[in-house]
Amino acid sequence: MMARPLDYSRWDHIEVSDDEDETHPNVDTQSLFRWRHQARVDRMEEQKKERQDFERGSLDTKRKLEDARKKLEGLSACAEAETKEEVEAQVMKLQMEMSELQKQEKEWKQKEEELSKKEKLTPWNVDTLSKDKWEKTVINKKPAKKTETTEEEKEEMQRTFVEKNEKLCKKFGMFKKYDDSMQFLTDHPELVCDECANYLAIWCINLQVEEKTGLMEQVAHQTIIMQYILELAKSLDADPRACVKPFFSRIKTADKQYTDAFTDELESFKVRVRGRAEARIERAMKEAEEEERQKRLGPGGLDPVEVFESLPQVLKDCFEKQNIPMLQQAITELPEEDARHHIDRCIKAGLWVPQDTTTSSPTEHRFPTKVADENPDTFLRRRKATEDGESDNEPREEESPEDDKPQGWQCRVQ
Q: Which residues contact 413 (CB under 8 A, 6 or more apart)?
């Protein structure tokens, strides 16, 4: 037995939408669409009202017919209590009412058939094409906010990422074509993260410090690509790995405004990289200078270079020529306070080192005195006493030719 063919005639006339037809150029399309939509809504409201009026009239007729039948049955039960003429008159009246009501009932049935036929011929539209059998409402809960990561945790995450993916990050930084970059990130989605962007940015600074400008500009381009993908993910509130292909699809077919914005961001990033590199070089130079300065500090914590630059020119000449008699003469000619100040600073800077009484080297210069460890106060007091004509009570030993050089101090200036 062959299956009965399906009847598709009901699908011949369907009002799917109010704006599916093309209109004349001189016709206001939006106004025409609004008029069509309003006309369809009014037509549906009229049909709905007609159906409601029919149902209300039909129910009213059925109720009146049922009431007439009940009254007729009641008259037949009480016929003995009343005269025959009165009963017959009431029965005749009720029968006439029932006849009229039955006629109205037939009319309502005929009208129902007409309404059903009219509704059947009415084209379907978006409101009558289908009906909901059931519906369900699902409210998605907003995911809980992630707790903010501490700086120590971020550093640990960065360190772990670099240990695992440093080679892949460097390989990604070398790509020049968009297709190659997209395929590489598709094959290695673990690289699409903030840690990779941070590594590429730091790599750019290191390359600039090493004066590898061309390579820095290449890696900077890949860095901006990674940052754009991450920003796109944030704006869409999506996983960054799902934004790789959308970004490359857009950048390859982007308009001039989008490409200009990308280029401007790239150039700004290069400027920032150069600035950071210069700051790092300057900081490294300062650290090296400070380290060198710390190495040459004297026993009193003063820098011998700074102390030497602060000396009067006459003392500078003595140290540059390493002439001890000339230095003694210059000290005697200076005011006492100035001499005391400069000698003390020279000792703290290590320009003059008190002689160690236990050891002696051939290059040491000694003052002509028996005091092995004479300090600046002693020297200045002795100088003042000499100027005032005072002399020591103790006899002096005769100086030998070997003792022509000063004892008790040594000069570090070379």
A: 304, 308, 319, 320, 322, 351
pLDDT average, residue stretch 102-128: 80
pLDDT at residue 374 is higher than 60: no
Q: Which amino acid is at 49?
A: K
Burial class of residue 244 (count of CB atoms within 10 Å of its CB; 0-12, 13-18, 19+): buried
CB 229 within 8 A of CB 247: yes
**Which H or E element spans position 362?**
none
Give me the amino acid identity at 314.
V
Number of H helices, E strands in the chain: 13, 4
Mean pLDDT of 156-165: 93
Write 26-34 long-range contacts (CB < 8 A, 24+): none
Find, among 404, 339, 392, the residue nearest to 366 by Cα: 404
From first CA to last CA, the distance across the chain in angstroms is 123
pLDDT for the residue numbered 311: 84
Question: Which one, of 262, 264, 242, lies nearest residue 252 by Cα?
Answer: 262
- The rounded distance, in Å, linking the Cα atoms of 167 and 184 is 13
Non-local CB neighbours of 369 within 8 Å, separated by 6+ positions = 382, 407, 408
Please give the Cα distance from 113 to 107 (Å, whole number): 10
Among 80-94, 259-273, 334-348, 391-405, where is mean pLDDT lowest?
391-405
Residue 340: what pLDDT?
Answer: 82
Q: Does pLDDT of 360 surpass 60?
A: no
Cβ count near 192 (within 10 Å): 20
| Lowest mean pLDDT across 34-38, 185-189, 405-409 | 405-409
Q: What is the DSSP string of 109-138?
A: HHHHHHHHHHHHHSPEETTTS---S-----
- The Cα 324–Cα 404 span in angstroms is 10
The residue type of 289 is: E
pLDDT of res. 200: 95
Mean pLDDT estimate for the chain? 77
Note the pTM of the prediction, 2 decimals.
Answer: 0.47
Q: Name residues whose C-beta falls within 8 Å of residue 314's C-beta, 6 or more positions apart in sequence.
A: 330, 333
